[in-house]
Amino acid sequence: MRVPLIAGNWKMNTTVGEAIKLVKEMLPRLDEIDGVEKVLCPPFVSLAALKELIKGSSIKLGAQNLYFEEKGAYTGEISPLMLANLCEFVIIGHSERRQYFGESGELIGKKVLAALKVGLKPILCIGERLEENEAGRTEEVVTEQLRSSLAEVKKLDGLTIAYEPVWAIGTGKAATGGQANETISLIRHFISQLYNRSVAQSLRILYGGSVTASNSSEFIKQPGIDGALVGGASLDAKQFLSIVKQTSEISQTR
Ligand code: PGA
Q1: 246 is a domain residue
Q2: Quick check: CB of 210 below 6 Å from ligand 1?
Q3: What is the CATH number of the domain that holds 217?
Q4: Catalytic annotation on 140?
Q5: What is the CA(72)–ligand 1 centre distance, in A?
Q6: Among this protein's residues, is 132 annotated catalytic?
Q7: For residue 254, is pLDDT > 90?
Q8: Ligand 1: distance of its center to the CA of 126 in Å?
Q9: How far apart are CA 217 and CA 220, in angstroms?
Q10: Which of 66, 73, 156, 196: CA 20 to 30 A from 190?
């Protein structure tokens, strides 16, 4: 049984003060919802303060990026070791990192390995762009992203994949539950070829891209979708709570 996971990707939003306020708005109701892993991914600068705030609760933290080296002359970067005692998860290879910061599959692969090495749980993002989708290249693109990012990864323990079609991110134009489930099935099938069936069956695969409180159940109800990576709607306490609650209810009926 795969425990569903809802992660809030706050992106480059919230000052430390705003981050504290947002978490206070969600606590303790978020804490009470069970049957779902709840992960908040604020900007780096808020991790320490939020770690204190959520102490003793069932809420977990994630970072939005890292660099693969442990330490050294890499001005402006944050290492896996620095994150290891601040959070449990880390988003890697988000399409915004690929698009605006030129991150390649190879670099993303190094980050995944570095995260796993210190016990961080990567949420590896993959997804096709609009023109690739329209050209019928979705499967080719996502499998190539997986191949390059997992090339050196022997064990997937702790790893989660987030399928986020780029055309659905921040656009209000989400995929349908059926579309997302279909691509996620292809991803799971590819993972079973790369590793084996039992690895593929226990791997969590999330959907991300314009998930809101009004459409989240459409995704969560799909048999192959194990939760969501939520951007914009995760900055709204009410909506995020509602998404997590709906996920909990659906998971109980499975
Ligand atoms: P969105 O972002 O929910 O705002 O579309 C999702 C993401 O980028 O992870």
Answers
A1: no
A2: yes
A3: 3.20.20.70
A4: no
A5: 32
A6: no
A7: no
A8: 12
A9: 5
A10: 66
